[in-house]
């Protein structure tokens, strides 16, 4: 009886070790995929994000919610102090003081122009900077507690709706659980491309991205990830 109990204990220990090795291997494989992805390769980045967003309802939820997340994030960024660098008048007139809101808008705009140096990048940039200017304008016109309360409420609701979209419709975890920074950075641009695709623009790129997404999903299915 004692020897049998020891044998069972060893079997359980081996199972636990095997499970840990599998988890470690899976994590390292995901990290390798992310690290091997060129930062400014537009098509590969769209394929990465698109592999998590294939179901039409989930895509529609993201088209509605991602802009709200960015806009409310910019509004919350207006709570930071502005840098005084000799007080250039033009940024102030454009409602773009040097605060976190404006810095975030500039960062997204610059990165999108580098990643997508075409009509898509050139058209999304003024939308982002316009949203930053509007956020700064709202912050100066209305009481801060009310503005923050509305922004936080919309922000949280948008996150919840996106998780519902993934859980109920997509049936796959959000991209941010695999790569937080890349997912947050790509989301607004991916949504903008989805809108442009639906307008009939970039048809060749759309076909290439959709084919790449299907290939990526098949690859993951072959590895038993249950997509």
Helix fraction by DSSP (H/I, runs of at least 4): over 70%
**Biggest sheet architecture:** none
Distance between the termini: 44 Å
* Series of secondary-structure elements, N-terminal to C-terminal: HHHHHHHHH
Low-confidence stretches: 24-35
| Alpha-carbon Rg, integer | 22 Å
Number of domains: 1
Strand count: 0
Determine the strand fraction and express it as a percent band: under 5%
- Please tell me what the overall shape is: globular
Helix and strand composition category: mainly alpha
Total helical segments:
9
Mean pLDDT equals 84
Question: Tags for this entry?
Answer:
9 helices; 227 residues; mainly alpha
What does this molecule look like?
This protein has one domain. It is built from nine helices and no strands. The radius of gyration is 22 Å and the shape is globular. With 227 residues, the protein is mainly α.
SSE map:
Elements: H1 2-36, H2 42-50, H3 56-77, H4 89-93, H5 100-115, H6 119-141, H7 144-170, H8 180-198, H9 203-222
Helix pairs in contact: 2-8, 2-9, 3-5, 3-6, 3-7, 3-8, 5-6
Summarize the model shown.
This protein has 227 residues and is mostly helical.
């Amino acid at each position: 009886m004692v020897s049998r109990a020891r044998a069972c204990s060893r079997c359980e220990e081996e199972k636990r070790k095997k499970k840990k090795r599998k988890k470690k291997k899976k994590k390292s494989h995901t990290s390798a995929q992310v690290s091997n992805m060129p930062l400014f390769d537009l098509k590969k980045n769209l394929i990465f994000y698109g592999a998590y967003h294939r179901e039409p309802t989930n895509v529609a939820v993201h088209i509605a919610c991602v802009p709200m997340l960015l806009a409310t994030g910019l509004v919350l960024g207006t709570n930071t102090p502005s840098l005084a660098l000799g007080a250039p008048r033009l940024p102030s007139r454009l409602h773009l003081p040097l605060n976190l809101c404006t810095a975030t808008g500039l960062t997204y705009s610059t990165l999108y122009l580098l990643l997508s140096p075409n009509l898509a990048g050139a058209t999304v940039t003024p939308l982002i900077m316009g949203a930053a200017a509007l956020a700064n304008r709202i912050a100066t016109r209305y009481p801060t507690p009310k503005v923050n309360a509305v922004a936080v409420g919309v922000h949280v609701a948008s996150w919840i709706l996106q998780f519902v979209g993934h859980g109920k419709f997509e049936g796959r975890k959000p991209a941010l659980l695999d790569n937080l920074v890349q997912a947050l950075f790509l989301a607004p641009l991916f949504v903008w491309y989805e809108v442009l695709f639906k307008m009939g623009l970039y048809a060749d790129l759309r076909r290439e991205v959709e084919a790449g997404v299907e290939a990526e999903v098949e690859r993951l299915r072959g590895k038993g990830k249950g997509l």
